[in-house]
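Data card: per-record layout.
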Amino acid sequence: MSSFDFALYYPVIALGLIYTVLTVAGRIVEGRGHGDIGESLQALGFGAILLAAPYTVVLLVMSLISYPIRLSDMAIIFAIIFVFFALVLGLLLLLTEVRVGRRPVGAYAGALAGAALAILVVLSI
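The structure for this 125-residue chain is written out next.
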């Protein structure tokens, strides 16, 4: 398969919409005093997501077979995303938890954000 048609993703999108509608409807019905019906609707929504899971695995296998060259690109993108979120979480931890000389570390946030941006630029090259 040389081209991966977007129509293959329609069942996943449809099952996601079904999950959303059934879960919201179940919560509304449950809030109006019909707990058993609401739980049934939410269980049906969860079943829709359970149906989407094996199909997602099939799509993953098909994409790995179709695009083996892009695996290295995918690994690099995941590494950049991981480093970015690790830096953001570390920055938030510093801003909220650590104090230096009775001042929050937020005073040094500009330098940390600049360092994080420099690291991301170097990794993206």
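Known properties of this structure: The first helix runs from residue 10 to 31. DSSP finds four helices and two strands in the chain.

See the next section for split statistics.
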